[in-house]
Amino acid sequence: MTEKIYEYKDDQDWYVAKLDGFPYISSFSGDEVFDMIRRDLTDILDCDYENPDQGFQVHVIRYSSSFKLIKFVLDSFNDAHGRHFQVSQHRGATLVTEGEQLRLVHLPKEGLPLKEFMGQTEQFGDTILIATRNEGKTNEFRAFFQKLGYGVENLNAYPDLPEVEETGTTFEENARLKAETIAQLTGKIVLADDSGLKVDALGGLPGVWSARFSGPGATDERNNQKLLHELSVVFDQEARSAQFHCTLVLAKPGKESLVVEADWPGFIAYDMKGEHGFGYDPLFIVADTGRRAAELNTEEKNSQSHRALALKKLLEVFPTW
């Protein structure tokens, strides 16, 4: 237990502190100073009312600057207890760090304009990078992650990133390749998906090759025609069962990736129908509805599709991950 007294004094500010005993604050400058110290500093100093060796007593005689007062208290605490707090100013706010950890952001009572605090940064808050350049898919993910307070961006914001080849033989392998490679290159949380159609009568094909089922230069039209050809001798509707599959992988450098997957069951029709969607949607009959995926509007599809089902699973486990 130290008996050392600390003091700071200039024309506008005058503080005295003793770094032991129970946490105690007194001020000639009103409740604002008392509340600021009590609210912002007590927690980061790990004050324990049962352990007076880690306490502090601060007396504020004159006060004009929250930055000077916070710096005084923390510099004194560093000296008395061997801590390593650093206090700096950033665009009108006071930042407190300890080692590699940001411990406190203290704002003026009236707050700060967001643009002033953020500077040239356009987006505030954490973001998740979606490993796609498809804006439609990005918007679908954005709608889900907004519920958790995360922003969403995609690879269009990073034109210099290399394309990641999907050389895996499973949906998870391909999604991992994209998510983990881009996470390592950018240092960001990255979400990648690999999706496709699995047809039971074809042993799970086209599977991971769904987008290129008809060979080089594949298009949706050619892929659909090839699928109809492959099933031309399968006449029973029940035998034409299929599932749209989605695997999602969330990756972050230094952390085990999070993997979820989901299936959207249905059947393959004998002809194409519907004006919405893409890929195999005109051939996919949603189980128990009789409607093609291409007959569903965006809101209907996003409430029940394989990607929607996988995202719902992801939202259940993401907060603890």
TrEMBL record:
Annotated binding of Mg(2+), by residue: E165, D194
Enzyme Commission number(s) of this protein: 3.6.1.66
Annotated catalytic residues: D194
Database matches in Pfam families: Ham1p_like
Chain sites annotated for binding substrate: T132, R133, N134, E135, G136, K137, S195, F278, G279, Y280, D281, K301, H306, R307
Cofactor(s) required, per the database record: Mg(2+)
Enzyme class: hydrolase
Alphabetical UniProt keywords: Hydrolase, Magnesium, Metal-binding, Nucleotide metabolism, Nucleotide-binding
Cofactor stoichiometry and binding remark: Binds 1 Mg(2+) ion per subunit.
Family assignment from sequence similarity: Belongs to the HAM1 NTPase family.
Protein name from the UniProt record: dITP/XTP pyrophosphatase
